[in-house]
Amino acid sequence: MTRAPKEWLKRHWPPLRLRTILFATLFVVAALPGVGAVFLRVYENTLVRQTEAELIAQSAALAASAEALWPGASPMSARGKVQPEASTIDLSSTPILPPRPAPVAAAGPVSADAVATSERLVPILRHTGHTTLAAIEFLDARGRVVAGADAGRSYADLPEVREALAGRPETVLRRNAGYRAVYLFEWLSRAAAIRVDHARPIIVDGRVVGVLLVSRTARALFKGLYEDRINIIVGVLTILGILIVLSGVLSRGIGRPIEALARATRSVAAGGGGGSVPEAPRTAAVEIQALYADFAAMAEAIDRRSHYLRDLANAVSHEFKTPIAGIRGAIELLQDHDATMRAEERRRFLANADADAGRLTLLVSRLLDLARADMAPGDPDARSDLRLLIGRAAAAARLDVSLDAPDALAPVAVPPVTIETLLATLIDNSARAGASAVEIAVTTDAAQLSVEIGDNGPGIAPGDRGRIFEPFFTTHRGSGGTGLGLAIVRSLLHASGATIALIESESGARFRVTLPVAPTREA
Q1: Homologous superfamily of domain range 16-72+89-227
Q2: What is the pLDDT of residues 151-171, one digit of tens each?
Q3: DSSP string covering 62-127, please?
Q4: What are φ and ψ of residue 181, in 5° steps?
Q5: 323: nearest Cα among 278, 292, 363, 367
Q6: How many other β-carbons are positioned within 10 Å of the β-carbon of residue 158?
């Protein structure tokens, strides 16, 4: 049912800037109380209740005057604890009755005591009505009008009068038969066309002797807004000012930093590199500052990876060029001189081509190993027994391998195959360099194991030490070295949070490997 409206809204939704969305959101939130005051009748209900409270106070004072003026009434005294009379009407729930009907004819004369009281009370009622604009009727104990043009006629059938004759004050809402719209949007007001009627009993010596029927039109909504226009205008301007300030704060904390990050993203996409990412503004939100830091790290990693891929492509092109040129040369010689070439020369050229093809096959295989190492995800559950793996590598080595390590070694959070590849590569490199012995020393702390692996070979030339981890760099190309072993080892270790580095040594080559300790099974 809601899918069609959603699709229509998506198609017609205009492109909006983040600042516009922020300001619109704040404006709507700020306007909600005002909209609720009008459309939920909060303000209007307050006006109607205020009218009821005024009628209650007015009728209470007049009823007390009538009780004091009543013939033969005992002197008035306090009626116990002070307790204000609460409002009883609500625009959202109180029913609105028809306009008050005219009083009906009633049999019998009006009470003599009521007539005597009215002679002194009616002038007070009229003077009060001129000031408060309330219509006031004085009824006797049977609901008959005591004075005025309707004297002797009865309001006893009105529900509010019946309640008052029973000794209970009562307020009702009635439609105003004489209402005519004055304001353009007055149809929004529910209270504009109603009157508030309040009936209050007059009690003398514990019995109801009469009723005061008071009514008045509630203050109109738009009239109330007009009378409070200064306060409303000041409040609206204050809210708009606060909205502008908050919009500026949110713009500096969210909008502008995101726009700057978007520009940096386009710069990185165009090849600007990680250096084009600006620092996070100090006014930015904490989460956006973290986003800046993460984006800068990502851009740096992308830049580093792009340089790595470019260098790798150049190295691959260079490494593949030599064996391919050798194979093509052998083929051309065989094509041009096959008829005159001796069998021994043909076999030599074919052997050279086969050797070059073998090297290409080996390079492709090692490149696949390097790609797998670069893409290998870390295994959070990996655990390896370092002492056991060193023992296996020593048993398979062609040279002497010794171990210096504490008796108890914690398991490391590195897959066994990574440790095996590390040991096999370093021991094989030592053997190719002419070393006869490899020494492995292990030191431990709470978070990691530090493994130093050194040999007694000739070592690495100072000029080559900065390039030994570059793909395809090797000093043993003649003996079949591809220059990918250490690059593969470093990638495998990096995937597990481990590191490898060449360190200074008085003789031979020495590497330091740091391996993270695996968490205990209980943890």
Answers
A1: PAS domain (3.30.450.20)
A2: 889 999 999 999 999 999 999
A3: HHHHHHHHSTTPPPP---SS--PPPP---TTTSPEEPPPPPPBP-SSPPPHHHHHHHHHHHHHHHH
A4: -65, 140
A5: 363
A6: 24
